Amino acid sequence: MASRIYDGPVVDAHQHFWEPDRNPHPWLRPEARIPFRYGNYDAIKRRYLPDDYRRDAGPHRIAASVYVETEWDPADPIGETAYASGLAARHGLPGAIVAQAWLDRADAADVLARQAAFPLVRSVRHKPGGPARPEEAGRSRTLMSDPAWRAGFARLARHGLRFDLQTPWWNLDEAVELARDFPGTTIILNHAGLPAARDPASLAGWRAAMARLAGCPNVAVKVSGLGQPGQAWTPESNGPVVRAVIELFGAERAMFGSNFPVDSLCATLPEILGGMKAIAAPLPPAEQEAFFAGTARRVYALAPAG
């Protein structure tokens, strides 16, 4: 079968909107400088709204998107969800929300109940921290192994909530334990497990960890956030990662995410989408449709295309 570039509608499973000049984003303040995997991030300390996003998409048809929490002031997690819900009402984007919830806090039960009451909330995210380098794995554990955090995680199922997990690949054995211990909760791995280093040894370690995670049927993966500082976003540089995720999880558990505007530090949205479509071109049309739209619609229970 000849390769065919996907030209259908796209559901972006991972993007952000923000207005740091009027909303509480500590890391986006003009003076803020946090360790950031793409280096200097001053260029994204600006308003980014649905009109900007649609303009950035250019010729690509964005049918729906999933708003992912933006490290808004942790004292006001409900405020961010109200803000994102308001954007959806005014602009038609996003179509679903991944809300902020700190699972090990004393107020976790109340926050989860309040977040779940918003019609667009489908999932929550709480980055579990832990070892920052592969060689540190095993010396310490992430919050995925903390009893209080797990008690918060256990509450997701009663609200029908999924969990968005952002952690590097060397912590994925803990994610396997979590997925097996809570088989009724869907876990969505962000940014393909963060395979930042692309040398053969690092990629081999990443692939082995992802293969173990793929054995958990309640786990899906967002192929997003693949930019590399100082390097162009190309099908050649990112193709091995994208193809490995689809091979391991299948298109029915893999989905495209732009991570915009964060990944605008590395590439334009047409460069990322065009590159992803070129990588996926050898796949059968049904698998391309799943990767670019269908899987995200199903996993995040998005409204059918109108």
Automatic annotation (TrEMBL):
Belongs to the metallo-dependent hydrolases superfamily. Gene3D superfamilies: Metal-dependent hydrolases. It comes from Methylobacterium crusticola. It comes from the Bacteria. This is Amidohydrolase-related domain-containing protein. Residues 11-301 form the Amidohydrolase-related domain.
